[in-house]
Amino acid sequence: MKICTPRARAAAPLCLRPALLALAVVGACAAHAQQANATAPGADEADSRGAVQLAQNLRQPSLNETVVTATRTAQPLSDLVADVSIIDRETIESSGATGLADVLARVPGIEISRNGGPGTTTSVFLRGAESRFTAVYIDGVRMDSQSTGGAAWEAIPLAQIDRIEVLRGPAGAVYGSDAMGGVVQIFTKRGENGVAPYVGIGLGTHGTRKLEAGVSGASGTVDYALGIAREESKGFNARTVTTANPDRDGYESTSGSARVGLQVNSVHRLEGTLLVNDMDSGYDTSPTANDRNLHKLHALGLNWQAQWSSQYKTRVQITDSRDRYETRPSVYLTETQLRGYLFQNEWRQGPHLVTAALERREDRLQNAPIDRKRSQDALALGYGYTAGSHTLQANLRHDSDSEFGGKGTGSLAYGYSFAPQWRATASVGTAFRAPTLYHRFSEYGVGSLNPESSRNVELGLRWAHASSSFSVTAYRNRVQDLITFGGPGPCASSFGCYVNTARAEYKGVTLAGSHKLGSVQLRASLDLQNPRDLNTGRQLARRAKRHGTLGADTLVAGWTVGAEVQASGRRFDNAANTVTLGGYTLVNLYASTRIARDFTLVARLDNAGDKHYEVARTYATAGRTAYVGIKWAMQ
């Protein structure tokens, strides 16, 4: 099941098989839509009510929906100049996915790579950028590893996530270090009026079992949301080579979250958030040992928000995150601790929004014999203007690092609604990532490494009307002082040292759209990109030049049913482009229904064609998998 490139045309029947299946599903959905439109009045009223309730799960984000990731302030989608996607809880639950990366892989502009099954090392490439170039936040708490660089995607528990916002494109002028490719902001659930307990169980292929429970609500001035989940799987053999241990590499995960808020009065609100996860997963490096990853993660945040007047608002936030990674029986232990302090001010006057923020970040890495700290102090300024057909957003930020000194970033974006439902956008911006403490102080480290820096320019065109939308975004993001591993040099190791010699370019076009045809919601995205090493001209490892998705959902006799296709072109596993990873096409099927007033059933069949493919050489993927889950949530 490959994308039909010129090399694959000789095997056209095999290439076309997934596409034909996808078209058949979409065609069947469209036929059902026409039939539904012709249904005479007087259908069963209970089925009609159920259909209305289930149709809410097919909802596309409204242009009035509010997002905070683009500028760190609440904005309706209709006012955004940035390129943003939203993933809500209904989408997460219907995905049946076991990992955050699997959900993100269905979002425009994102590819993933993983060394085996859930719990193993995972990379997320946003617009083709390195995994460490995506800034990750959980309820405003920054997540990062100062050993590997970037968030530990495999350790973030999907069961505790209520909403995800994905910002494509650099945002260094808003967030400082790390946001060179984009930002992924994760939110846990917030309590609402009443009491809403829930319990869910699920079973799947490879002995996968899930159990979750929680409660949320609000009473008077207090709101709360608590959740706990346990997931385990026997897994599958992570390696495809005979020299590795042929055992099954499963995982166990226990996670929890808490979010408690107090509305002190009409002006002040206090809130605390906590997310924790303890994961034990298998991997293979030796032919006999039972190799294990032990990963512990926590994200703690304390917030004070004050609405001093209708124009002026402030937020004070203190955060603490820890990422602890250990392997057994081979001895390796690394722990990153990040602390953050933010004082943000917002002033709104008519069409104008002015923001000013003071931020401090403290990083610490313990990775024997390394025990190092550093800090960054920043001032960030922003100005937004929205009136009539025009939207303007400008940001400036200066970060002062205790190790390498100061770094300034800026961005300017403009949007123009030149016709009803149409908007054109243009933006430029700079960003950077400071070298990790491991880059600088390990045996391979060089203390004089410079920050990696980027300069991005992009153009966009968007159309939206009712439940239909279309967008096309063209971008070019060039990176200087890219840190790679080179030959022997000024570091302690005779094997090699980290160097600042590389340059990269992430250039491409992202197309995305959705359209409602009768009762069928269609959606699709296509990324055409050329992530390359500017020094060698070669394609960057594990990233395809073409990847995309196609999906359709509809309602049939009280069931939400749908199909999706995920396709990726050829990639290379190494920088020299000598080891090829073949293209692939996956077909996924899913269905859900309300089986009683408070009970929902979800079923999925992923990789229905049981396609064998690799996203990292010699590492297996799961093959065809099935999942069935039941959730009780008091209405």
Describe this protein's structure:
There is one protein chain. The chain has 635 residues and is mainly beta. 9% of the residues lie in helices and 55% in strands. The chain has six helices and 34 strands. The radius of gyration is 24 Å and the shape is globular. Residues 1-60 have low confidence and may be disordered.
According to DSSP, the number of beta strands is 34
N/C terminus separation: 43 Å
Helix content: under 10%
Spans of at least 5 consecutive residues with low confidence: 1-60
| Mean pLDDT reading | 90
Task: Give Rg in angstroms.
Answer: 24 Å
User: In one word, what is the shape?
Assistant: globular
Structural class computed from helices and strand pairing: mainly beta
| Assembly level | single chain
Largest sheet: 22 strands, antiparallel, barrel
Strand content: over 45%
Tally of individual helices: 6
How would you concisely characterize the structure shown here?
This protein has helices at 12-37, 45-55, 89-95, 100-104, 172-175, 437-441, and strands at 66-67, 75-76, 83-88, 110-114, 122-126, 134-138, 141-143, 163-168, 182-187, 194-204, 208-219, 222-236, 249-263, 268-282, 292-307, 312-328, 332-349, 352-367, 370-387, 390-401, 405-419, 422-433, 452-465, 468-485, 498-517, 520-529, 532-533, 546-556, 559-568, 571-572, 580-581, 584-596, 599-606, 625-633. The chain is mainly beta and 635 residues long. The strands form five sheets. The protein has a 22-stranded antiparallel β-barrel.
